[in-house]
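User: Assemble these into one structure.

Assistant: Restating your components, then the assembled model:
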Amino acid sequence: MSARILDIRNLSVSYGAIRALHGISLHIPTGRIVTLVGANGAGKSTILRTISGILKPTSGQILFRDQNLVGLPPHKIVALGIAHAPEGRMIFSNLTVLENLRMGAYRRTCKKELAAGLDQVFGLFPRLAERSRQEGGTLSGGEQQMLAIARALMSRPDCLLLDEPSLGIAPILVRTIFEKIVEINRELGLSILLVEQNANLALGISHHAYVLETGRVSLEGAPATLRENPAVRAAYLGG
Amino acid sequence: MIEFLQQLINGVAQGAIYALIAIGYTMVFGVLRFINFAHGDVYMLGAFAGFYTAPGILKIFGGGPSYAGAAAVLLTAMVICAGIGVLIERICYRPLREHPRLTVLITAIGVSLLLGSGGQYVFGADPKAFPEIIADAAIELPTSWGSFSTLTITIGQVLVVGCTLVLLFVLKTVVLHTKTGLAMRALSLNPTAASLMGVNLDAILSFTFAIGSAMAGAAGVLTSIQQPSIDPLMGVSAGLKAFVAAVLGGIGNIPGAALGGLLIGLLETLVVGYVNPTYRDPLVFAVLILVLLFRPSGLLGKPEREKV
């Protein structure tokens, strides 16, 4: 067992002629929560989208338990044990909550595993159990976010990529969702890579953090240290 | 009254054919958001697949027309067309996946022309007589039905409608109650999210083309039972009308395609029966214009909401 579940080395990604990531290196220690902090357009989501195979890097390596993911299509990467709850939630709006969760378990063929997965996510988010027959598009923003996370968990991943779980959600639900993220990490032992605009909240629950600026890692360290850093305070924590 | 009923019966039988073809348009649109204009030509190829395989297949089933033989011809044509559909997607559309939809659309028109003209080259441009795979005749209605017994219902019509209903039922089961069907629906809602769930997009797209093309192939054979004269350009007009049917029902909506097909078939038959046969085609295409003007999302389609 490697101490690093995910190890990104020298990753560069371009959108056409525009370079979004300039040789980024970062890693997630097994069983930890790592946060990427940065302004809009710093490349946070690009990193997640590249890990899950939606984007192809121009160079660099993404090692998941020492296997290079670069070049694999998204459906093979899910099968290896990485789940991605994408930015904007991307709920299947015309499918019911239950069907959305079934889609999450698409690579799982065993009926027992499916039932166990449903038990698990309904235990975590009882609200989803109440609404299981409802169409995903009729849920509130917060419930959709819960569904996005639950759907990602249905693939029984070892590593979870969370993109802006607080975006467009009522503050009271944001707190609940972050408590659940901690629970998922502690109780289920998942390693988590979290991208979050709300740096204060994210630093509060993570073990390690990277600060991204225009496609480069500008700072990294323990959340407590970063919080004391004057530049970070000024830029991301509201002074 | 009897006359009107007769027209309705003929219209339903014609509408069933359009429904089968329209489903292919709508399914492909659902997953790829483009109109596969080559779809009408797959319907034509279905008729020719039946034409070339029927004599051999009927021989296995005793030589003459028979239901078992007809079923085997139908299935063979469906399998051949499924294969053709998968190949068309694989060779012509898949390499253009990352390109603008207009590129794919123009390619589809090119594929349609290629299949139509290629068909003229390979099969010959003259109409061919489709072999009699079932003994088509009017069904004797009991005289106790009074004036209704003067209605003409042919075995072919019953078969067309019956087969269409069975195929629609199978399709509904696949789309609503299987994992692959769920993946198809997820893919049509959000391809990126579907791939993040572990869906192999290429496999689902191939599957979608296979199903849609098999339906068109079935329509090709079923049409030929009723109108046994086939030619390589028969797919152009039928394909366009089925496209109108798909738009009328709401493009991307499978029950809508079936409903649209039925309505277009009825409209055509009623226009021929009561107005003037010359107006048949213009009126069908007038429907297209009216739908696009007043209800672009079609009868059963939901208006597309802007994503926030």
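The radius of gyration of chain B is 20 Å.
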